[in-house]
Each structure stands twice: as structure tokens, then as C-alpha cells.
Amino acid sequence: MTPTARRTVAGRALDAGAQAASTALLVQRVAQETAERVAAETAARVSQQYETAIAELTKTLDKNTKRALKSVRAAADLAQSATGKGKKKGKKD
Predict the structure, then answer these.
(1) Predicted pLDDT of residue 83
(2) pLDDT for the residue numbered 82
(3) In this structure, what are the phi and psi dihedrals at residue 27, rounded to the nearest 5 degrees?
(4) For the chain: N or C, fewer Cβ within 10 A?
(5) Cα(92)–Cα(59) distance, rounded to whole angstroms?
(6) pLDDT of amino acid 86
(7) Cα–Cα distance between 87 and 31 in angstroms, integer?
């Protein structure tokens, strides 16, 4: 083999190595961008699920609070009517 042929083979090997490194860098960049996009989409989806769950919980809590308040008022009215306190009587002088 002549020195020129060796240089050509070495040059080709060097070019192939550079191409492989460039491709590896591109693959790494695409993988990083994909990972970031997937993470952002997942975070947005989880955030939406939390918002929905909190809204449902708030709605249920409000409904139960209204029921409890209604029950307390009914119990207070019942207690007032049982004791006779709460009825208006004529003025005493």
C-alpha cells in the first residue's frame, strides 16, 4: 500500500468518525428536546387533573357545608320551639 492510499483510508476513517460524532450529537439533542417536551406535556396533564380534583372537592365540600348548616338551623329551630324561647310575647311594663 502506498502512503497516499493510507492517507486516503485514514482520511476516510477520520471523516466517518466525525460523521458518527455529529450524528451522535444530533441524536442526543433530539432525545433531550423530546424528553423536555414529554415532561412539559405530562406536567400540564397532571396539573389539569389536580385542578379538576380540587374543583370537585371544593364543590363537594360546599354542598356538605350547606347541608350541615341546614341541619344545624333545623336543630336550633326545633330547640327554640321546644323551649318556647324565640316566640315573641307581648311587652311587659
Answers:
(1) 85
(2) 86
(3) -60, -40
(4) C
(5) 49
(6) 58
(7) 78
Contact between residue 36 and residue 43 where contact means Cβ atoms under 8 Å apart: no
| Residue pointed to by grid coordinates 320551639 | 81
**Exposure on the CB side of residue 44, measured as CA atoms within 13 A:** 6
What's the alpha-carbon Rg for the chain, to the nearest Å? 39
pLDDT tens profile 35-66? 999 999 999 999 999 999 999 999 999 999 99
Do residues 71 and 65 touch, judged by C-beta distance below 8 A? no
Residue position matching grid coordinates 336543630: 75
Longest dimension (CA), the chain: 133
Task: Name the DSSP letter for residue 91.
Answer: P
Please name the amino acid found at residue 40: A
Look at the block and give the residue holding cell 330547640. Answer: 79
